[in-house]
Specification:
It comes from Scheffersomyces stipitis (strain ATCC 58785 / CBS 6054 / NBRC 10063 / NRRL Y-11545). One of its GO terms (molecular function) is polyamine oxidase activity. By secondary structure, the protein is of the alpha/beta class. The chain folds into 2 domains: about 5-50 and about 205-295 and about 430-494, FAD/NAD(P)-binding domain (3-Layer(bba) Sandwich); about 100-200 and about 300-415, Polyamine Oxidase, Chain A, domain 2. The protein has 16 helices and 23 strands. It has a 6-stranded mixed beta sheet. Helix 1 packs parallel to helix 9 (about 210-215) and helix 5 packs across helix 6. It is globular. Bound molecules: flavin-adenine dinucleotide (FAD). Flavin-adenine dinucleotide binds near residues 48, 67, 302 and 419. Flavin-adenine dinucleotide binds near residues 18, 419 and 424.
Length: about 500
């Protein structure tokens, strides 16, 4: 008898972020839509891709999660988007924006932008980054230490090469990495901090939503179940001749041969007793549970301030506001009372410059936030964000212009979202960047689960593009291809 709470299929994909949707869309193409279902706990698709098209008072779209195509020379998502004939997917001429200007730097003790060029700040910054790389390359025996500690070592050793001003402004310039990883410099692994990029960053001014729309275009709505929180995965099931039974909190039961688990690492890590954890039967083996502990999860967030007047430089596209040097300040400590402005660095993207051609009746500044500031601001009224950033943003005011009050403040809420719980995988000191990938990517013999029909995808399961949209996308493709291949092998073996 037909039971609306039951489905029997070949493949179930858990999580409808970019990894899950790429896997599902590839599988639907090959196996047909009757054989694939997607289970998503939230009431919307996209996961950490979320383009806000309604909150702006200036008529702009804001990506509250991923916004940039990183590694634009090699980014496969960008490459495919540009190959699309249908320009409504991504119109490069109209919507692409490269962050091709050096950032301006500001500090609490200086009015206007710091003269980076004549003080040769960028040259010192390059030396500092090279020092950090060389420090750990010198010997494999060098233990990991935090970015803050290895930064101090540079100044101990080479501070004498610098001018007073260089020493002053560069002392904690390396903290801008906090706005990449979403964690503070006293936690960031020095060994893994410095990044090499394959090309500039590119923004689709319309937002990343195009990717979710593209990926869902061939998945019929009856194959996608939203508001279905997976609570258990039984991988020794025998009912309906299927190896796996998935159950959701809302009472749905899916029987299938293969699953692709794409929930964030922050969710996979939860104990089964937790309200949002998944109970595995039999439990996940210790090689996987300990790999899940070998890496942390960051908390990058955003606060967007909209103004009816542009009182900052409309031409510069990004601003770095340096944090003050406060001896004894532990940046990662939980924030319990309003934080002091300039205690955390800010990275600001100038949307007045990004959307220059629109002649907007104002402009906006998109400010990135790091843990523990993200948790504090996401749990506080928007006015707290303005209180913290106002004195910092005031530094951007052009001569003769005064900072004005925002007409609108938009904030992210990733740390309070129980199905995301932060931003993406981040390496603390002594974390292992490869163990989780080895255990979950399915690419290494003798690792992961014995049941090869249980697959994992997501930004935390891949090294090329780790933490990024294109990494998540390629991991979804990897798993869909593996299943298609496995199915064709078993058909040809009959
Ligand atoms: C603020 C911020 C800025 C970022 N900026 C960039 C950027 O500029 N460029 C870039 O490339 N990347 C960026 N990223 C990272 C990028 O967004 C992610 O790497 C990528 O979107 C992750 O995709 P995913 O499919 O692995 O995971 P997700 O998108 O998180 O998908 C997992 C899905 O699983 C669902 N789920 C969780 N638990 C359950 C359950 N029990 N049952 C069913 N479903 C469940 C979740 O709701 C979610 O929809 C940013 C992220 C954040 C938060």
């Amino acid at each position: 008898m037909y039971n609306p709470n039951e489905r029997v299929v070949q493949v179930a994909v858990i999580g409808a972020g970019v990894a899950g949707l790429k896997a599902a869309s590839t599988l639907v193409n090959k196996l047909g839509d009757a054989q694939v279902v997607v289970l998503e706990a939230q009431d919307r698709l996209g996961g950490r891709i979320l383009t806000d098209t309604t909150s702006s008072k200036l008529g702009l779209n804001y990506d509250l999660g991923a916004a940039w195509f990183h590694d634009s020379l090699t980014n496969p998502v960008l490459k495919e988007a540009l190959e699309e004939e249908d320009k409504s997917v991504f119109d490069f001429e109209k919507d692409a924006y490269f962050d091709d200007k050096d950032t301006q730097f500001f500090s609490s003790d200086h009015d206007g932008p710091i003269d980076v060029a004549s003080l040769k700040i960028n040259r010192v910054s390059e030396d500092l980054e090279k020092f950090i790389e060389l420090y750990f390359v010198e010997s494999l025996e060098v233990p990991d230490s935090s970015l803050e500690e290895v930064n101090s070592k540079f100044f101990e050793k080479y501070g004498k090469f610098l001018t007073d001003e260089q020493r002053h402004y560069c002392r904690n310039i390396i903290r801008h990495y906090e706005l990449w990883y979403g964690i503070t410099w006293d936690l960031i692994s020095g060994k893994h901090a410095i990044m090499d990029h394959n090309g500039r960053n590119l923004l689709n001014k319309n937002g990343y939503k195009f990717l979710i729309e593209k990926l869902t275009s061939n998945i019929p709505s009856q194959s996608v179940y939203t508001e279905q929180q997976v609570v258990s995965i039984d991988r020794k099931n025998k009912v309906h001749d299927k190896k796996v039974l998935i159950q959701t909190k809302q009472g749905l039961r899916i029987y299938c041969d293969y699953i692709v688990v794409t929930v964030p690492q922050s969710v996979l890590q939860l104990k089964s007793a937790s309200e949002y954890g998944i109970t595995w039967n039999p439990p996940l083996p210790s090689n996987i549970t300990s790999a899940l502990e070998s890496i942390h999860f960051g908390a990058l967030g955003k606060v967007i301030f909209e103004f009816d007047e542009v009182w900052w430089d409309p031409e510069e596209d990004r601003f770095d506001i340096l944090a003050d040097i406060t001896p004894g300040f532990v940046a990662s400590q939980e924030i319990k009372s309003p934080p002091v402005p300039f205690s955390y660095p800010a990275f600001v993207v100038n949307f007045a410059s990004v959307h220059k051609e629109k002649n907007l009746p104002g402009g906006s500044l998109v400010v990135l936030t790091q843990s523990p500031l993200t948790q504090y601001l996401e749990s506080s009224p928007a006015s707290e964000a303005w209180k913290f950033y106002k004195p910092m943003l005031a530094k951007l005011a052009l001569p003769g212009k005064n900072i004005t009050e925002p007409i609108n403040i938009i904030k992210t809420n990733w740390t309070n979202n129980p199905y995301i719980r932060g931003s993406y995988a981040a390496l603390h000191t002594d974390d292992d960047p490869s163990e989780l990938i080895i255990q979950l990517s399915g690419e290494f013999d003798g690792c992961g689960l014995i049941d090869k029909n249980i697959r994992f995808a997501g930004e935390h399961t891949i090294s090329d593009g780790a933490g990024c949209v294109h990494g998540a996308y390629m991991s979804g493709l990897r798993e869909a291809d593996w299943i298609i291949n496995d199915l064709s092998d078993s058909i040809s073996n009959i």
